[in-house]
């Protein structure tokens, strides 16, 4: 008689949205997962802050561990799933001790991977254990697997996408309703689509965490979160959305990474910023809390990954996919190639990039202002494709929105700098780049 294969014994650190989702998924799909993984997935131990909290799931069949940091040291655990969050603190301590104990680690924690991914990957390689984080980027979308496995034969030329569901929900609601940012944000918080403290989302930091992880995998470079040029959506007004619409665009928060040739080899460009996206681009049709990632491979062409970027079910789907890989014995380098072989790429200078930009200015309603603005752009060598001046806005300023012809970004930055001391402007100019084909 053949012995039944040993189950993969799992510790769950954190039982919030994602943790509870993982338990529900493993319970609901246990038989098919065991068939595909070649052995059952068995949760042996769980832990969170409050043991008494009603989580709508029966936890009585699992051992309870108060200290998640020592979960990986338990004899009844093969892999720890970290679903607590935070770049440092208990999540990082849990990750380190787990790997040092020779156990595999799965995490949904993009902040921790963006800040400490290289260190953890180095430790995992040394310990010959798996470190997997599919759920950390774009929730339920298997984009890390897509790049690491499906597109592994390609040189990736560019990777970009909509990486934050909260921002996308806010932007598409502003678009549908004509309402202003603050109003839609308040509603999103009331409905639970935005956190009570939404700063990480609306300032673009969450998207920057995810972009830096994607970029490392796509380009085989050392993860460099600090180099992501990041701006969020807080300065957008309903009038920007309306103006973009009149010009044939929607506004989306886009994370964008590509490589450029620098004087000392390859440079990595990473930026999170609201962009104008042409109506005919696939990302223009990504609405609500959905995420989407585009990767351009030199043989595959454009690949589009789209789906739910958050939520208990989709995120659990990504976590359990990692667990199935581990149950099958797949380790693999966390960033596709060993840490020592990841290329150290200098951060590319945005100024040398070319493209078209949208610039919105709010100016005092007095004669000569338009001439002053156009003179600054002329003096900076920026060629204007279209310019629209709108009547008084709510705060007694006029709005001037212009779109530039293709040219160096440095020239637009120069024009904005020329205007920075102007007493005519009532607010700093807002620059958004236009997504090219
Ligand atoms: N939510 C999503 O859709 C989503 C999507 C992708 C990735 N992620 C990532 O997944 C991770 C978890 O997110 P989540 O939404 O599930 O968070 P959450 O709902 O806030 O859950 C966090 C869990 O961690 C526990 N916890 C917090 N501090 C702890 C500590 N010091 N010791 C032990 N347990 C502690 C909490 O315990 P109590 O329940 O007892 O308070 C809770 O169960 C984060 O890294 C997040 O960025 C989330």
Topology, element by element:
Layout: E1 8-13, H1 17-28, H2 30-37, E2 41-47, E3 63-64, E4 79-82, H3 89-100, E5 104-107, H4 110-127, E6 131-132, H5 143-150, E7 156-162, H6 165-177, H7 181-190, H8 199-202, H9 205-219, E8 229-230, H10 238-247, E9 249-262, E10 265-278, E11 290-297, E12 301-308, H11 312-327, E13 346-347, E14 354-355, E15 357-364, H12 369-379, E16 384-392, E17 397-404, E18 407-408, H13 409-419, E19 425-434
Parallel strand pairs: 1-2, 1-4, 2-3, 4-5, 5-6, 8-10, 10-13, 10-19
Antiparallel strand pairs: 7-9, 7-11, 9-10, 11-12, 14-18, 15-17, 15-19, 16-17
Provide a descriptive summary of the structure in words.
This protein has 437 residues and is α/β, with parallel strands linked by helices. The chain folds into three domains: 8-136, NAD(P)-binding Rossmann-like Domain (Rossmann fold, 3-Layer(aba) Sandwich); 143-308, Dihydrodipicolinate Reductase, domain 2, CATH 3.30.360; 352-434, Alpha-Beta Plaits (2-Layer Sandwich). It has helices spanning 17-28, 30-37, 89-100, 110-127, 143-150, 165-177, 181-190, 199-202, 205-219, 238-247, 312-327, 369-379, 409-419; strands at 8-13, 41-47, 63-64, 79-82, 104-107, 131-132, 156-162, 229-230, 249-262, 265-278, 290-297, 301-308, 346-347, 354-355, 357-364, 384-392, 397-404, 407-408, 425-434. The strands form three sheets. Strands 7, 8, 9, 10, 11, 12, 13, 15, 16, 17 and 19 form an eleven-stranded mixed sheet that branches. The N and C termini lie far apart (60 Å). The structure holds NADP nicotinamide-adenine-dinucleotide phosphate.
């Amino acid at each position: 008689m053949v012995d039944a294969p040993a189950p993969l014994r799992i510790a769950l650190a954190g039982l919030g949205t994602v943790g509870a989702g993982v338990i529900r998924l493993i319970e609901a799909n246990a038989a098919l997962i065991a068939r595909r993984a070649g052995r059952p997935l068995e949760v042996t131990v769980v832990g969170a802050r409050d043991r008494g909290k009603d989580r709508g799931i029966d936890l009585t069949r699992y051992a309870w561990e108060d200290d998640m940091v020592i979960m990986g040291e338990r004899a009844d655990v093969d892999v720890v799933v970290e679903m607590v969050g935070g770049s440092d603190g208990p999540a990082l301590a849990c990750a380190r001790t787990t790997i040092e104990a020779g156990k595999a680690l799965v995490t949904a924690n993009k902040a921790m991977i963006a800040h400490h991914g290289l260190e953890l990957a180095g430790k995992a390689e040394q310990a010959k254990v798996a470190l997997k984080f599919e759920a950390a980027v774009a929730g339920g979308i298997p984009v890390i697997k897509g790049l690491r496995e499906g597109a592994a034969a390609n040189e990736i030329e560019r990777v970009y996408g909509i990486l934050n569901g909260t921002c996308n929900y806010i932007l598409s609601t502003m678009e549908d309703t004509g309402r202003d940012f603050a109003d839609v944000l308040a509603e999103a918080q009331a409905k639970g689509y935005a956190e009570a403290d939404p700063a990480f989302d609306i300032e673009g930091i969450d998207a920057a965490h995810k972009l830096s992880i994607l970029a490392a995998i796509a380009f085989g470079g050392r993860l460099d979160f600090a180099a992501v040029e990041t701006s969020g959506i807080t300065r957008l007004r309903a009038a920007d959305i309306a103006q973009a619409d009149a010009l044939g665009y929607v506004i989306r928060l886009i994370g964008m990474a590509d490589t450029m040739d620098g004087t000392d080899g390859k440079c990595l460009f990473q930026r999170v910023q609201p962009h104008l996206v042409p109506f005919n681009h696939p990302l223009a049709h990504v609405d609500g809390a959905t995420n989407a990632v585009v990767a351009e491979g030199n043989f595959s062409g454009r690949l589009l990954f789209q789906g739910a970027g958050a939520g208990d079910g989709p995120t659990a789907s990504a976590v359990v996919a990692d667990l199935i890989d581990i149950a099958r014995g797949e380790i693999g380098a966390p960033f596709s190639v060993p840490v020592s072989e990841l290329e150290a790429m200098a951060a590319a200078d945005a100024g040398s990039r070319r493209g078209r930009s949208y610039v919105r200015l709010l100016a005092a309603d007095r004669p000569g202002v338009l001439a002053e603005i156009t003179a600054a752009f002329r003096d900076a060598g920026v060629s204007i494709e279209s310019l629209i001046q709108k009547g008084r806005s709510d705060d007694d300023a006029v709005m001037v929105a212009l779109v530039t012809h293709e040219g160096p970004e440095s020239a637009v930055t120069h024009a904005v700098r020329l205007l920075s001391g102007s007493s005519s402007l009532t607010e700093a100019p807002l620059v958004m780049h236009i997504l090219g084909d």
